[in-house]
């Protein structure tokens, strides 16, 4: 088996035990093909010492698999532990008479155990294993495609790589967001302010909206004041200005005792007057 060198150096106290573990793995010898077949045969016969030797010789491969899923919400040490459990499962189930190497079979169980841990512990809301797999592949491919294309990957490109629809990709990436507590504190000092204090009350209109609304009302009223009483009444009725709701041409025609065609002509003339006035005052590009 190809030798895998572990060259990770953590300087924090939290990962001191990992560095010791990596140093221990470096001292474990690898197995030849003949030794692996012999050990697998003994494992199937129930030899626990053979199980220990087979698993120990492949622990460094678990580390290389776990590193690919680091910083996804589960500590690396936990990912390695879960991968080791998958390696043990593979050792119990492997049949050396099938003619392929043990690690080729074990890689499925190692990754399955790691993915299961990610789905179980990395999110507040547990996701199905297939969605965890899709999200993990998409996150990895984001970096790969960005290097290849020299731009951010589109949702269509990610969905194509993962093998699902664009809608499914968007939905699953939305589910991967980390939920925040409304009572989570932030600021320069701990406890300075809670997130809930920054959430706007949707039932209250902001002050600038009220001011701009009042200004717009006065502006519209000053423009309508330039029309004749009949023109103003027709425009207000058609567009629901100072009225509970908009009215159709037929309703307005009945109210002013005119035909619908005449109402349209008067409205068109009044609107042209307003547009001309707006341009003259330099209010907007009418």
Automatic annotation (TrEMBL):
The keyword GTP-binding does not apply. GO terms for molecular function: DNA binding; sigma factor activity. Residues 54-123, 144-208, 223-275 form the RNA polymerase sigma-70 region domain. Keywords: DNA-binding, Sigma factor, Transcription, Transcription regulation. InterPro entries: RNA_pol_sigma-70_dom, RNA_pol_sigma70, RNA_pol_sigma70_r1_2, RNA_pol_sigma70_r2, RNA_pol_sigma70_r3, RNA_pol_sigma70_r4, RNA_pol_sigma_r2, RNA_pol_sigma_r3/r4-like. Residues 17-47 form the RNA polymerase sigma-70 region 1.2 domain. GO terms for biological process: DNA-templated transcription initiation. This is RNA polymerase sigma factor rpoD. It comes from Pedobacter kyungheensis.
């Amino acid at each position: 088996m190809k030798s895998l060198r572990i060259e990770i150096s953590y300087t924090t106290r939290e990962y001191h035990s990992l560095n010791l573990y990596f140093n221990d793995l470096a001292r474990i010898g690898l197995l030849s093909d003949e030794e692996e077949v012999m050990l697998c045969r003994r494992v199937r016969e129930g030899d626990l010492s053979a199980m220990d030797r087979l698993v120990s010789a492949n622990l460094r491969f678990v580390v290389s698999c776990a590193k690919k899923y680091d910083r996804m919400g589960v500590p690396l040490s936990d990912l390695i532990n879960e991968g080791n459990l998958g390696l043990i499962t593979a050792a119990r189930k492997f049949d050396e008479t099938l003619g392929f190497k043990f690690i080729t079979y074990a890689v499925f169980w190692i990754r399955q155990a790691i993915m299961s841990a990610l789905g179980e512990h990395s999110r507040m809301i547990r996701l199905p294993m297939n969605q965890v797999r899709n999200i993990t592949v998409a996150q990895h491919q984001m970096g790969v495609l960005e290097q290849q294309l020299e731009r951010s990957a589109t949702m269509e490109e990610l969905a194509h790589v993962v093998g699902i629809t664009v809608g499914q990709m968007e939905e699953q990436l939305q589910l991967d967001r980390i939920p925040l507590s409304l009572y989570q504190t932030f600021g320069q000092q701990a406890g300075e302010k809670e997130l809930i204090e920054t959430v706007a009350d949707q039932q209250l209109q902001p002050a600038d909206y009220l001011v701009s609304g009042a200004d717009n009302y006065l502006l519209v009223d000053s423009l309508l004041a330039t029309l004749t009483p009949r023109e103003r009444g027709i425009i207000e009725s058609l567009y629901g200005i100072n009225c509970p709701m908009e009215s159709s041409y037929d309703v307005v025609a009945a109210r002013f005792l005119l035909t619908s065609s005449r109402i349209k002509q008067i409205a068109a003339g009044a609107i042209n007057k307003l547009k001309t006035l707006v341009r003259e005052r330099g209010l907007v590009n009418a």
